[in-house]
Amino acid sequence: MIGYVALKILQIAFWLTNWFMYNVMGYSLACGSKKEKSLSATYEYSAHVMKVLYRAARNGDWDVWCWKVPSSNMLCVHVQYCHPKCVLEDNISLFGLSKDTAYFAVASSHVDFYSSKVNSFFACAQFWNMTHLISMPISSFHRIAGRTGEPKSDVVLLSSTGRCGSTLFTQLFEALPNFRTISEPLPLVNLLRMYNAGQTSDEENRKIVRSSILLLCKRVKEKNIECIIIKIGGSCPIFVEIIWKYCSFVRHVFLYRHPKNCILSYYSMFHADPIGYCKHAISSIPMVEKNYQEENKDVVSNGYIYELIAVQWAQTCSWVLEYRRKGITIKSFNYEELLKEPAQTVSSLFAYLGIKEELVPLALTAMKKDSQQNSYISKSILRRHRLNSFTSEQLYIVNKVLQNFGFPPLSQFSMSCLK
After folding, report:
1. pLDDT band at residue 66, thresholds of 50, 70 and 90?
2. Of 342, 364, 343, 346, nearest to 355 (Cα)?
């Protein structure tokens, strides 16, 4: 919190100094000279490179997924305007999106944003470790994405209900040579919030999703990347159909967990950081199905966090079942089976994706550690807030949510309905 307050004070001081310099000297600390600024209107100079001087988050890592503008919790100064092709360098990666702007993070030579050793979540690794931030208009973002072409590497999209071992699943692949994992990148989360707010059209959603996937999977010059695994956040499977239609090179895997275990795990996370989780939940979970919200306001609108979690689980699983009915190929795996029979489950996963059977033991080494050890929801933190059962009121409402989405109550639930 102290760091966040310091950031806001620095931002005010920066704004006042910047206003004075621009009006008196014609130079902006944020945007450069008037001549430079005028050049940025052309595509060739539309990438704005800024040095990150300071950053902070009010509620820690949670905030990274809650900002409407990805750069809002940074203090940056102008460096230069350059050609958008600069973001194709290996150490630069797509960070986030707003309605009109795309943002890219620049890594120093000793930091690998893709490594779970830096942070279990890609967006958090970028935010806390980037040296520079690059912004460009959405029009330039689409144009440079089109220039990259489809990736030469295989691409796998991992969707999930959340709290189901998806981070561990991702790290099974990270243990393999020449594999790259991207755990919960920010762009689709940003698009989800814009979609929920009615700020984007279907055409804009299609273009943003395709451009985001292309730039997340851009070709790497210094490494031979054979496969890229993208794990998307809890409510982002809403975009799976778009990805299937317009990024046909992507293969799809869905990971789920028994609703009771999944929802209780979410409760533990909520109790560990109630302010951060509420901000995230309110802005991304209750949006899911407008008809459901309108017809069941007694369930969704009363603010009980466990109802929002149940809605997320049920809606995500409903999407997957609907996608299958439409002919989209999605291979499902469940967390309980992974824990019970890890070798058999990973072997089945690798067979589906065409990965060599002999790599299974290497992948399984990831199960020896806490997959979220470098994050705000590590086992050591959540262990203090673990819940094992529902109250009778919670059980009633969770069952009501499940039944409204066409699932049986917990006492009758069978995992076979999602296979």
Report:
1. low
2. 346
DSSP-assigned beta bridge partners for residue 272: none
Find the angle CA(213)-CA(42)-CA(136) to the nearest 5 degrees.
Answer: 35
pLDDT at 296 over 80: no
The single residue listed with the structure tokens 């309108």 is: 294
Measured distance CA(123)–CA(186) in Å, rounded: 6
How many angstroms separate the Cα of 382 from the Cα of each of 160, 272, 307, 390?
20, 6, 20, 17
Burial of 365 (0-12, 13-18, 19+ CB in 10 A): exposed
Query: Among 48-57, 121-130, 290-299, which stretch is predicted with the lowest mean pLDDT?
Result: 290-299
Closest to 79 in 3D by CA, of 24, 136, 31 = 31
The predicted pLDDT at position 280 comes to: 56
Give 124's contacts (C-beta < 8 A, 6+ positions apart).
61, 64, 375
d(CA 334, CA 418): 9
**Cα gap 324→66, rounded to integer Å:** 31
Describe the strand order of the beta sheet including 132-137 as a list of residue ranges. 74-82, 47-55, 132-137, 101-106, 92-97
Instruction: Kindly state the percentage of the chain with pLDDT values over 70.
Output: 85
How crowded is the C-beta side of 395, counted as CA atoms within 13 Å? 9
Q: Which two tokens stand for residue 107?
A: 């890594």
DSSP secondary structure, 283-332, as one string: HHSTTS-HHHHHH-HHHHTT--HHHHHHHHHHHHHHHHHHHHHTT--EEE
Provide the 3-class DSSP secondary structure of residue 130. Answer: coil
The per-residue pLDDT for range 220-236, each reduced to its tens digit, is 988 899 999 999 987 78
Q: Is 112 helix (H, G, I), strand (E, B) or coil?
A: coil
